[in-house]
Automatic annotation (TrEMBL), chain B:
Keywords: Iron. The keyword Iron applies. This is Ferrous iron transport protein A. GO terms for molecular function: transition metal ion binding.
Length: 635, 78
């Protein structure tokens, strides 16, 4: 049996998915988190079902890339039951999507999620009346606490068994008449070819949906003309511009259902949330608060990471020194030393900073503060020829560049997507943050580390300005939903941290260990000297760094932390300051942050944007890195 | 009738009409902003920053760029 979770962004689909499928889908209090499909075979009360978590869509319009994908998924895969997940505190808007879904004619169950949110906002919903008006089961649920899930799936299995096709929800007479006429002119065969019901196609044509109008025009131009003429008539009759009339009608219909089924006990004074936002989103106070939050964010990471690194580094170093003492030299020593180096790298260097960073990032995401940062930074983003939602991929980029490249899918214009994708590799990901904290913060102090982040923002700004010069078309204005604050549940935050930790342990750590062993092997064969010599003009010449650094940079392409761990191995000690001066440490770190993106980012760029963009990004990054590192060296 | 841009924070207005391209209109509809809804400007970003508005009819809160806000025509509500 196939179940699809469909709903507007931030309505709790992924949360519901994780409750039933175990923690697989990433969640955050940020509209547009899920951009790809997550599917999982699930056992619910003894019954096996394939559940898919679709990206959030406000409507089933074909104008938006992500929404077209979701619509195609729904009509091309034979789905047994659609669970329409609704944020109960935004019921009226959510119903607009529900009305479109019902026209699709798939057996549907409505999951009225976040009932606690609705209550907090004083919204009381008569669930039975709503279910009666929509003609489908409506089950109140609080996904994050796992409440109402059992009842929901009882309704789901019941609906699947009866395979009940939802009945038609009628629009007001004049509009319904036009839809009826449109529907009659569409042959069953045409509808089947486009894999939609005749009513859904009729409504889409009357919405002036270009995707379907074009499809119909290919074979039945007369239907297309008929659609355009009836659209004109509707425009005169309802006095609303042609392409808005259907949407406004659906909005009014949703509002009407909302008013009949929900009551709002409007609290008198401003709610707590409004008070917080009055300060946090204030046109002046918003910025110092944002700076404070980010400062606290990094201070916490560093104050947790530093001692942990200290704690793990000591014994492991001692072990390696004792080992090299007893083993003398030889291939075996190099390999074992490489292996220990990899373990030490992961345990003592990456994890102490990685775990707090991911934990705090998840907490910040779930709180709902990130879209507020997007609001505050929009003016600044505007200056670099970008705005709109491209702030969200940047914020995701601070965690890891790979998901942020896919996150560019939420941007409407291809211009924005390419421009944002070219800038993302400049955003320091968690791996680069580890390098910054382990080197700069450790040896030069946290203020220097913060300085690096601030200059990074200016570098991204200037680059954005330069690159957007090549893409003159203005990008669309910012239209971004600001979700309500949610107190992050500790369970979910820990689960999210564990999800990232698991991927690190399963993929990244082995690479670190294998990389260190290979490094040991190269060192044994003295091959690394060849590599170092080859890159000497860059490393020694421009950057005034010791030659051994070259091989570490090569490994850094695999994973950024690798360049750090390889550095310890190349210099033969983890106390870098014995060999490198503070300026050299800074030069090395600046180069590592900006040079060629890591392999997985490049692979993602290739997959999303093609060879040319991936190559351009690699050259752009390396060029800027060399320039900036050189500047650091001479200053 | 005036443009949303000129509405100071705290004032409640009713959306009369949305000028501007189809793309922008569609996205405003998707977000739940329709002619006839009453909205309130909560705060305005500095240096030509976006408007932070709340749709009192649907309870949706959103940040709207200046360019977009300029094309939303509103009328004050007593």
């Amino acid at each position: 049996m196939k179940i699809a979770l469909v709903g507007q962004p931030n309505s709790g689909k992924s949360t519901l998915f994780n409750v039933i499928a175990g923690f697989k889908a990433n969640t955050s209090n940020l509209p547009g988190t899920t951009v790809t499909f997550t599917e999982s075979r699930v056992n619910i009360g003894g019954r096996i079902a394939d559940v898919v978590d679709l990206p959030g869509t406000y409507s089933l319009s074909t104008g938006d890339l992500a929404e077209l994908e979701t619509l195609k998924y729904l009509i091309e895969n034979d789905i047994d039951v659609v669970i329409n997940v609704i944020d109960a505190s935004l019921l009226s808007r959510s119903l607009e999507l529900t009305l479109e879904l019902l026209d699709l004619g798939l057996p549907t169950v409505v999951a009225l999620n976040m009932m606690d949110e609705a209550e907090r906002k004083g919204i009381e919903i008569d669930v039975d009346k709503l279910s009666e008006m929509l003609g489908v089961p409506v089950v109140p649920v609080i996904a994050v606490h796992g409440k109402g899930i059992k009842k929901l799936f009882e309704a789901v299995f019941e609906t699947a068994r009866k395979n009940t096709v939802p009945r038609v929800i009628r629009y007001p007479a004049p509009v319904e008449e036009k839809i009826r006429e449109m529907e009659d002119s569409i042959s069953e065969e045409l509808a089947r070819k486009l894999k939609v019901t005749r009513r859904f196609l009729a409504v889409k044509l009357l919405e002036g949906d270009e995707f379907f109008l074009k499809k119909v025009k290919e074979e039945f131009p007369d239907i297309e003309n008929f659609a355009r003429t009836s659209l004109k008539e509707l425009e005169e009759k309802r006095g609303i511009p042609a392409d808005q009339v259907l949407h406004s009608e659906r909005h009014n219909l949703a509002m009407c259902i909302f008013e009949k089924t929900a009551r709002i006990k409007r609290k008198k004074g401003p709610t707590v949330e409004e008070k917080i936002d009055r300060v946090v989103m204030h046109h002046f106070w918003g910025y110092p608060i944002m700076a404070l939050v980010l400062l606290l964010f990094f201070y916490l990471i560093f104050s947790i990471g530093g001692p942990l690194e200290e704690f793990f580094l000591g014994p492991l170093d001692a072990l390696r020194d004792r080992l090299s003492g007893s083993m003398g030299s030889g291939l075996l020593l190099n390999l074992i030393d490489g292996f220990l180096q990899g373990i030490e790298g992961g345990l003592a260097v990456v994890l102490p900073y990685f775990v707090p960073l991911v934990f705090l990032m998840s907490f910040l995401e779930d709180l709902g503060y990130l879209p507020r940062i997007a609001f505050l930074l929009d003016t600044f983003m505007h200056k670099i020829g970008l705005h709109g939602k491209s702030v969200i991929p940047f914020i995701v980029g601070y965690g890891c560049n790979v998901p942020s490249i896919t996150a560019t899918r939420i941007l409407e214009s291809p211009r924005d997507r390419i421009l944002t994708a070219l800038l993302i590799p400049f955003i320091p990901c968690s791996a680069k943050t580890t390098v910054i904290l382990a080197l700069v913060a450790f040896y030069l102090g946290p203020l220097w580390a913060l300085g690096l982040y601030v200059t990074n923002i200016f570098v991204v700004a200037i680059l954005g300005r330069v690159i957007s010069g090549f893409f003159p078309t203005p990008s669309p204005g910012l239209i971004l939903e600001i979700p309500s604050y949610k107190l992050p549940s500790m369970k979910v935050t820990f689960l999210k941290t564990w999800l990232h930790l698991k991927t690190f342990i399963n993929f990244a750590w082995p690479i670190l260990i294998v990389g260190s062993i290979i490094m040991g092997f190269l060192q044994f064969l003295k091959v690394d000297l060849l590599i170092n010599a080859f890159f000497a003009p860059l490393t020694r010449g421009i950057l005034n760094l010791p030659g051994e650094v070259a091989t570490t940079l090569i490994f850094g392409i695999l994973r950024k932390e690798l360049s750090l761990i390889m550095l310890f191995q190349a210099l033969g000690t983890s106390h870098v300051s014995d060999i490198l001066t503070t300026k050299q440490i800074l030069t090395f770190t600046v180069f590592v942050i900006y040079y060629i993106p890591c392999l997985s980012t490049l692979a993602m760029l290739w997959r999303e944007f093609g060879k040319k963009i991936a190559l351009l990004s690699a050259l752009l990054n390396t060029g800027v890195a060399t320039l900036l590192a050189f500047l650091v060296r001479i200053l | 009738m005036l443009s949303l841009i000129s509405v100071p924070p705290g004032i409640t207005v009713k959306i009369i009409q949305m000028a501007g391209g189809r793309g922008v209109q569609m996205r405003l509809f998707q977000l739940g902003l329709h002619p006839g809804d009453t909205i309130r400007v909560l705060s305005v970003g500095p240096f030509g920053g976006p408007l932070y508005i709340e749709n009192l009819t649907t309870g949706v809160r959103a940040a709207i760029g200046r360019g977009v806000a300029r094309r939303i025509l509103v009328q004050p509500v007593r």
